[in-house]
Design a protein that fits this description.
By secondary structure, this protein is an alpha/beta fold. It has a single domain, classed as P1 Nuclease. It has a four-stranded mixed β-sheet. A hairpin with a 2-residue loop joins β7 and β8. The relative contact order is 0.18.
Length: 337
């Protein structure tokens, strides 16, 4: 890596906003707010209100992330009280019990390996190699409980059907809260597309010879840059998007997005395909170091091309807009006027 390349990266990163937790509160709430706006006055909007009561899609969009505060190893206690502002509205006995109930039902039915997260945490992502043009269950990094299958499970419940195993979704209300979050997740490129590297930092395709878990960059979580790690960088929003300042603008853009013509059960696959294309933009022009020795887990350094901040802002705006539009369109398809 040249000094000029790295210096440009550092200069660009210095302009980036303070990192926050996840496509987090701000990103997911933006998606929910767009959908709320688009559903105003519709039958689907009325159905949402009947299921959520006084809460909105914007407010419950973080529910599935906040449920991660339940610790199975501590008798399913909620252990992050006061830590995340977006979760504080749920920090009451009734909601904490709902978190614990969901996590109990979705803790280990997928038979997670010793080195894998609990099942409900795996519902939020998949890791498709960028050599593929499309999502397909069976590729390395996919499974029957990844983000695509999780969305399809919530759709089934909202249509009055039972969620397929290993998902255990209690009712329509829980399905709606999960779906609102998962639609946001699947539109974050690094929740779908991943890059796989050998020990020398060279890109490889895990489907050529079988998956070696030591090659997975885990959606960018194993790629370190001056900003922290690449996944966290992509989870955060530009400062001007935070606290809903761009919601009206994004809603207007979302209303121009055409509805998918395929059956809604196929939409999650189409959204994943779109995320893979965006993930290629995420990694375009990047350079990778050798794998860092003597570090627990996979770890490489990544150097980003100049003008990367501008690229991120464009992809994030497009992804958030589509996520809000797609959520509203899906709910209107499930509960048509």
């Amino acid at each position: 890596m040249t000094k000029k390349f790295i210096a440009g990266v550092l200069a660009s990163i210095a302009l980036l906003p303070q990192l926050a937790f996840a496509w987090g509160a701000d990103g997911h709430q933006t998606v929910g707010a767009i959908a709320d706006n688009m559903l105003t006055g519709t039958k689907a909007g009325s159905k949402v209100k009947s299921l959520l009561g006084t809460r909105t899609l914007e407010q419950i969009s973080v529910w599935a992330d906040c449920a991660k505060g339940i610790s199975p190893e501590k008798d399913f206690a909620y252990t992050v009280t006061g830590r995340f502002a977006e979760c504080q509205p749920f920090e009451n006995p009734e909601d904490i019990q709902a978190f614990a109930d969901f996590v109990r039902r979705n803790n280990n039915a997928c038979n997670p390996g010793a080195d894998e997260e609990t099942c409900h945490k795996q519902y939020h992502y998949t890791d498709i190699s960028l050599q593929h043009d499309h999502y397909k269950t069976g590729f390395a990094g996919t499974n029957d409980h990844d983000i695509v299958n999780a969305i399809q499970a919530t759709i089934a419940v909202l249509r009055g059907q039972k969620a397929p195993a290993p998902f255990n979704i209690k009712d329509e209300r829980e399905a709606l809260m999960l779906l609102t979050h998962y639609v946001g997740d699947i539109h974050q490129p690094l929740h779908v597309g991943s890059i796989f590297l050998d020990a020398d930092g060279k890109i490889l395709n895990p489907d050529d010879k079988g998956l070696d878990k030591t090659t997975n960059t885990i959606g960018g979580n194993a790629l370190q840059c001056p900003c922290g790690n690449l996944h966290s960088l992509w989870d955060d929003l530009p400062q001007n998007f935070k606290r809903g300042r761009m919601n009206d603008f994004l809603t207007k853009k979302a209303k121009t997005i055409a509805k998918d013509t395929a059956p809604p059960e196929q939409w999650a696959v189409l959204w994943a395909d779109d995320a893979i294309r965006n993930a290629r933009i995420v990694f375009a022009g990047a350079q990778f170091s050798e794998r860092t020795p003597n570090v627990k887990g996979n770890n490489w350094s990544i150097a980003l091309p100049l003008a990367y901040e501008r690229t991120m802002a464009q992809v994030k705006e497009e992804s958030l807009t589509k996520a809000g539009a797609h959520l509203a369109q899906l709910l209107q398809t499930i509960w048509p006027d």
